[in-house]
C-alpha cells in the first residue's frame, strides 16, 4: 500500500474517504490516476475531479458522490493487477464485475477504459481494479 | 465556431478568457475537450482543470495560468483540423510548432498527445490544434 503502488494508494484513499463521508479526497497526481478518475466520473461513481499543478508532482482531487440518504455511491474498490502479480485478460476475455453491476478498469492499447468498452473494442489489457 | 465544432468553441472560450484575465473558464464537457485539457496541464499551459457532472453533459472548468506580471501563459491557440477539412500527419511526419516553442495536439491511436510524443511513439494522427 506504500507508494510502490500509487494506484493501490489511490483506492485506499477513496475507500477511507467515503467511509467517513468526506466530500473530497486529494492525492499526488499521476497519469494513470487521472485516467482512472476519468473513468470513475464517466461511469457516475464520482461527482467529478480536479487536476492541478500544486505540489511537487501535481495534485488530483476527487469529488466523492453520495446518494439521497448519504450512502456512498462507491461501495467497494479492489486492486486486481498488482506490481508483484500483474493480471492480464486477452481480447474477448475481459471479465465482467458482479454481472455488470460493477466495472473493471482496464489498461489497454486504446487507453484506460471499462471492461465493457474493452469488450466492445475487442481489446485486452491489464485489469487494474474493480469498482462497484 | 458553433457547436458543430466543440473543440473550436473550447479554444475560443480560452482565447477570450485569457484576453480579459479570467482565472477560470467553463464549458460543456466532452471526451476530446477533457483530453485536450489534460495535455494543456501536462505541458504547463494551464494551472489545472476540473471535470464535473453539473449540467446536461457535464462541465469542464479550466484554471488559466498567468506569469508574474499577469501575462497569459497561453499566447495563441489555433484550430488546425476542422470538421470541413481534416488535417492528418503520417507517422514520422508530425510537424513541430514554432520550432518547438509551441505544441501541436494530435489525436492518435495512442490517445490525444503532443506532437513531441507522437514523434517519440512514431505514430501519426489528426492535428487537432496548436498552442503556444
UniProtKB/TrEMBL annotation, chains A, B:
BP GO annotations: translation
Annotated HAMAP family: Ribosomal_uS8_B
UniProt superkingdom: Bacteria
GO molecular function: rRNA binding; structural constituent of ribosome
Similarity remark: Belongs to the universal ribosomal protein uS8 family.
Keyword Magnesium: no
Gene name for this UniProt entry: rpsH
Protein's name in the database: Small ribosomal subunit protein uS8
UniProt-listed SUPFAM superfamilies: Ribosomal protein S8 (SSF56047)
PANTHER family: 40S RIBOSOMAL PROTEIN S15A (PTHR11758)
UniProt-listed PROSITE patterns: RIBOSOMAL_S8
Pfam families (UniProt xref): Ribosomal_S8
Source species: Desulfofustis glycolicus DSM 9705
Amino acid at each position: 500500500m506504500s507508494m510502490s503502488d500509487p494506484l493501490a494508494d489511490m483506492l485506499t484513499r477513496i475507500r477511507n474517504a467515503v467511509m467517513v463521508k468526506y466530500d473530497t479526497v486529494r492525492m499526488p497526481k499521476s497519469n494513470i490516476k487521472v485516467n482512472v478518475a476519468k473513468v470513475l466520473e464517466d461511469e457516475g461513481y464520482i461527482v467529478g475531479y480536479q487536476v492541478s499543478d500544486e505540489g511537487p508532482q501535481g495534485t488530483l482531487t476527487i469529488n466523492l458522490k453520495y446518494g439521497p440518504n448519504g450512502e456512498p455511491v462507491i461501495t467497494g474498490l479492489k486492486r486486481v493487477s498488482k506490481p508483484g502479480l500483474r493480471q492480464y485478460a486477452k481480447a474477448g476475455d475481459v471479465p465482467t464485475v458482479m454481472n455488470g453491476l460493477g466495472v473493471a478498469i482496464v489498461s489497454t492499447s486504446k487507453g484506460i477504459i471499462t471492461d465493457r468498452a474493452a469488450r466492445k473494442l475487442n481489446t485486452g489489457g491489464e485489469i487494474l481494479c474493480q469498482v462497484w
